Backbone:
């Protein structure tokens, strides 16, 4: 067992872990952060993405011991204290950027990571920035739209006004919803 | 899956890392960014008894100007390579190829040295290091040694690194006056290269004075396309010379067939991509 200390979503936890414990398992099973999910064994799907020291990483491919002394943000740490959604979360909701939702926590964290570096990405830059995240349901169109909408509202520095559903993004309307 | 149990240590200097490897014996393994090793541990393709994490060894990280060459610390991440002004200025080929490696998350953790030590035949950086004629600096309990790229890669996932040895840095000559290009072909975004071609070209007075061509995924390790290099050397810098030289791109290669591409298709790709890479590098 190795003693580690890690700050997750603003709270510091000290734990003894087996060196082979994956960060994602530590988050889920020890700290109860089950918002972060596992989708593969090959570091391909990105569903486990969290911010480690502020940068997006696949938490299935980092050992908990490697995160000793570091700051981790999971999808559960994005919303405000009052439960107000992060602009990226809200944009995913409003743009219908998910169907089964399994990829969503990772997509959102990868989008937060991308926007921290590029606050105004083009469609292509969003697709490239999220290339490490696979979605088997949506076809990605609404995910790209959500990230661009979130970027717009984050640049405005204000919470996007919640419009009536009929005024959801044009992309969502023209492509139709295939659930 | 969960990896098999192992011990773990995170030394903060190279001497301690080499010592930890020596103490733990043959079944110890280095972990750098973990982006190739972790999937192998999870699928239990590898089951080391001890992992020596180089993440705390600051001296293995960063890029430094050493006059005629850049010295790149093995633990420099792909992401750091992409942001490094010295790399942009003196080894843009490395930045260009690194931008095609994996995805943002993997590039945040994966390292330049780890990619080279891992020696995946489909990896982009081994052929780039081969084209640049880089030198690999290695440290072990028995001392230090330098190995040229032409000898570093031995076979599929195999290099000259002995158990207990650490790749510490990679020396990349600056090649003033040369131009370079990396051309990669893959099936979908985020995919490994079906074939990749790294070229470096030196032109003078309307001829190609010197050319280097190294191929990704055309054998169990990177290969120099010597037939192309020989055909180009001294040739007039025209599209015709490029095309006729590129036709020999697969002459020295032994590509394999897999579910994604047959060996014949890979040979074809090598000739087309070599011509494109030479063209993009301004060889004509
Ligand atoms: C989804 C995905 C897509 C990818 N796509 C590409 C791609 O398109 N092109 C590409 O080139 N690569 C790709 N990679 C691989 C990526 O570049 C890895 O970063 C790299 O192969 C390994 O670097 P690492 O630092 O993570 O090494 P690790 O995984 O930590 O180590 C890999 C191996 O090298 C050994 N090792 C590492 N560093 C040293 C050292 N300094 N001295 C001695 N031994 C050492 C380890 O013991 C281990 O055996 C991809 C990886 C993933 C997960
Ligand atoms: S679970 Fe698929 S990349 Fe981590
Ligand atoms: S919504 Fe189902 S995988 Fe993306």
Residues:
């Amino acid at each position: 067992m190795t003693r580690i200390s890690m700050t997750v979503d603003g709270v510091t936890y000290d734990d003894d872990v087996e060196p082979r414990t994956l960060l994602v398992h530590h988050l889920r099973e020890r700290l109860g952060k089950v918002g972060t999910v596992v989708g593969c064994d090959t570091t391909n799907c990105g569903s486990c993405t969290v911010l480690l020291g502020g940068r997006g990483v696949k938490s299935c491919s980092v050992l908990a011991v490697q995160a000793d002394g570091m700051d981790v943000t999971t999808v559960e740490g994005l919303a405000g204290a009052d439960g107000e959604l992060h602009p990226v979360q809200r944009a995913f909701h409003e743009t219908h950027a998910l169907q089964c939702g399994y990829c969503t926590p990772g997509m959102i964290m990868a989008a937060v990571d991308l926007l921290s570096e590029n606050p105004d990405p083009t469609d292509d830059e969003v697709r490239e920035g999220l290339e490490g995240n696979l979605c088997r349901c949506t076809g990605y169109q609404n995910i790209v739209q959500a990230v661009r909408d979130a970027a717009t509202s984050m640049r405005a520095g204000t919470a996007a006004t919640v419009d009536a559903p009929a005024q959801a993004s044009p992309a969502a309307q023209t492509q139709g919803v295939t659930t | 899956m969960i990896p098999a149990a192992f011990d773990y240590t995170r030394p903060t200097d190279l001497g301690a890392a080499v010592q930890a490897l020596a103490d733990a014996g043959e079944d110890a393994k280095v972990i750098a960014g973990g982006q190739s090793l972790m999937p192998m541990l999870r699928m239990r393709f590898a089951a080391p008894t001890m992992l020596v994490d180089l993440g705390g060894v600051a001296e293995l990280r960063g890029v430094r100007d050493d006059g005629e060459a850049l010295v790149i610390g093995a633990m420099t991440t792909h992401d750091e390579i992409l942001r490094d002004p010295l790399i942009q200025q003196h080894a843009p080929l490395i930045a260009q190829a690194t931008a095609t490696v994996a995805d943002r998350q993997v590039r945040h953790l994966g390292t330049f040295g780890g990619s080279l030590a891992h020696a995946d035949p489909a990896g982009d950086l081994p052929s780039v290091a081969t084209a640049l004629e880089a030198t690999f600096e290695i440290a072990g309990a028995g001392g230090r040694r330098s190995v040229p790229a032409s000898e570093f890669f031995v076979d599929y996932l195999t290099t000259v690194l002995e158990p207990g040895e650490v790749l510490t840095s990679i020396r990349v000559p600056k090649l003033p006056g040369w131009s370079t290009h990396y051309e990669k072909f893959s099936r979908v975004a985020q995919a490994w290269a079906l074939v990749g071609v790294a070229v470096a070209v030196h032109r003078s007075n309307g001829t190609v004075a010197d050319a280097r061509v190294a191929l990704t995924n055309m054998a169990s390790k990177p290969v120099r396309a010597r037939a192309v290099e020989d055909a180009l050397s001294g040739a007039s810098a025209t599209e015709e010379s490029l095309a006729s030289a590129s036709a020999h791109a697969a002459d020295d290669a032994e590509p394999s067939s897999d579910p994604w591409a047959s060996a014949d298709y890979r040979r074809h790709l090598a000739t087309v991509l070599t011509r494109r890479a030479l063209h993009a590098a301004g060889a004509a």
